[in-house]
């Protein structure tokens, strides 16, 4: 198709764009110049004008085994025909138990009690509620304070935005009382262009000690962090930071929650980042890669200690007044079991670790490129930070995304940071092509 054909094809086949109020999107700008994907297979999307575009973000950090896996589609179709839906309140169905047992088998040590939800945001709000219920059950109901970290992203529920640390997600809304934040770990002065974990900043974990000194440990229920912050632009933790946070939590009886919605299911080189770092939280949130994104689902992993403290008391009483109509949805469980099977069979949990040296070299090959002020990587996550244009922060990031799309690459931008987290099936040759395209795109920006 030439350009004129493409444009007329798009115009005639496009749906009416008015009704769909798009999430996290500048709606009017988008609808004035829309971009639509209409197909996806493996590493590539197909655009409405028939072009192939490399998916450099696994959709939204979620299609870890690549697009269009027939095993997942068939498992979902089979389950929908066998039994489309069954509730999980006071009745059960086998797949939810099977899937939970499988997840318990790959979970970080001891986190083998699984609560199903439908998204990352629900995973986070559920984890926060479990933390509060845990302390209450143990007679420490004064521990109501929830601590997050600046630049953290924990979804969009009221709990998640309260502990989240991105101002735009918070400013229009009422927040939970008592939520507080420790400092973020991004430090361009000391750590710019670090390969993998930055050397400086473990002491930033001590900020939690300041919160303890300020509020009293007996008011703090939990601390939640992403082991590698994703949405704020890929911020790997400084060496030793997570270990230090774990030690401070232990010292003060504070629960540690790892939000592994992005880092879970192979993104860092192990099934979960906590396994890679050797730091085990008390509660872990997941979603995204859980079903390879073919069906919306999340899962909260809790330790036996947390679970057993709550699931106690008279047998006939409901222990946790929490859950969703679709918790453990049969088709979601079928998708998740099929995805797990693929991850295991194709060795995808550890593939990021194998590819990571190639990924790191290719990404850091952009050092010296115009506008680039930092490069960060961990596992199969990467970020290219561009210098903001004077008086127009975020504009370079947006233009880079558009130009990259023209050049056949779908990337994600947050402000002036370009983020990358491809499906774990990416080849070494595709990694090379990806960052050569990024170089060309960035060089061409004003
Ligand atoms: C770390 C983290 N937590 C929670 C969420 C929210 O997930 P969802 O969009 O499925 O609600 C996200 C989404 O990007 C995330 O990155």
Total beta strands: 15
Helix content: 25-40%
Distance between the termini: 30 Å
Q: How many separate helices?
A: 16
Largest sheet: 7 strands, mixed
Overall pLDDT metric = 96
Radius of gyration based on Cα positions:
22 Å
Query: How much β-strand is present in the residues?
Result: 15-25%
Structural class: alpha/beta
Indicate the multimeric state: single chain
Write a structural description:
The chain is an alpha/beta fold and 446 residues long. The protein is built from 16 helices and 15 strands. The chain has helices at 3-13, 27-32, 58-61, 70-82, 94-106, 120-137, 158-163, 188-191, 207-215, 241-252, 273-277, 304-310, 330-345, 348-364, 395-406, 428-443, and strands at 37-41, 44-47, 52-55, 113-117, 145-149, 180-182, 220-225, 255-259, 283-286, 298-302, 372-378, 381-386, 409-410, 412-414, 417-420. The protein has a seven-stranded mixed β-sheet with strand order 4-10-9-8-7-5-6, sandwiched between helices. Strand 14 and strand 15 (417-420) form a beta hairpin. Helix 4 packs antiparallel against helix 13 (330-345). The longest helix has 18 residues, at 120-137. The chain is globular and about 65 Å long. The mean pLDDT is 96. The structure holds pyridoxal-5'-phosphate. Pyridoxal-5'-phosphate (PLP) binds next to helix 6. Residues 119-121, 124, 153-155, 226, 230-231, 259, 261-262, 287 line the site of pyridoxal-5'-phosphate.
């Amino acid at each position: 198709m030439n350009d004129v054909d493409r444009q007329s094809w798009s115009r005639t086949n496009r749906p009416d764009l008015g009704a769909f109020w798009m999430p996290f999107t500048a709606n009017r700008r988008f609808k004035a110049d829309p971009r639509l994907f209409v197909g996806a297979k493996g590493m590539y999307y197909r655009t409405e004008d028939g072009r192939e575009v490399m998916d450099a973000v696994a959709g939204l950090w979620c299609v870890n085994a690549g697009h269009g896996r027939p095993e997942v589609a068939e498992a979902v179709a089979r389950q929908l025909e066998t039994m489309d839906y069954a509730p999980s309140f006071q009745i059960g169905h086998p797949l939810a138990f099977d899937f939970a047992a499988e997840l318990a088998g790959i979970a970080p040590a001891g986190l083998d009690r699984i609560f199903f939800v439908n998204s990352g945001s629900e995973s986070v709000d559920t984890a926060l509620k479990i933390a509060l219920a845990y302390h209450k059950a143990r007679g420490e109901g004064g521990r109501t304070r929830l601590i997050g970290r600046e630049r953290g992203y924990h979804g969009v529920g009221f709990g998640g935005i309260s502990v989240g640390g991105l101002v735009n997600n918070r400013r229009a809304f009422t927040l939970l009382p008592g939520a507080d934040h420790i400092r973020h770990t991004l430090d361009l002065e000391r750590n710019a262009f670090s390969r993998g974990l930055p050397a400086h900043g473990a002491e930033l974990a001590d900020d939690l000690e300041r919160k303890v000194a300020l509020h009293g440990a007996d008011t703090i229920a939990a601390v939640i962090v992403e082991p590698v912050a994703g949405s704020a632009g890929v911020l790997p933790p400084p060496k030793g930071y997570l270990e230090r946070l774990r030690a401070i939590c232990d010292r003060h009886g504070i629960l540690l929650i790892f939000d592994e919605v992005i880092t879970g299911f192979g993104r860092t080189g192990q099934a979960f980042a906590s396994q890679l770092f050797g730091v085990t939280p008390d509660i872990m949130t997941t979603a995204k890669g859980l079903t390879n994104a073919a069906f919306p689902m999340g899962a909260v992993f809790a330790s036996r200690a947390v679970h057993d403290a709550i699931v106690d008391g008279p047998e006939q009483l409901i222990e946790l007044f929490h859950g969703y109509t679709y918790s453990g949805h049969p088709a979601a469980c079928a998708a998740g079991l099929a995805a797990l099977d693929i991850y295991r069979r194709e060795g995808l949990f550890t593939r990021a670790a194998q590819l990571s040296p190639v990924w790191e070299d290719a990404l850091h090959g952009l050092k010296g490129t115009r506008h680039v002020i930092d490069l960060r990587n961990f596992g199969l996550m990467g970020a290219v930070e561009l210098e903001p244009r004077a008086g127009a922060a975020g504009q370079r990031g947006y233009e880079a995304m558009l130009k990259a799309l023209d050049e056949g690459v779908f990337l994600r931008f947050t402000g002036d940071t370009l983020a990358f987290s491809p499906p774990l099936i990416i080849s070494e040759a595709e990694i090379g092509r990806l960052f050569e395209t990024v170089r060309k795109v960035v060089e061409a920006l004003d």
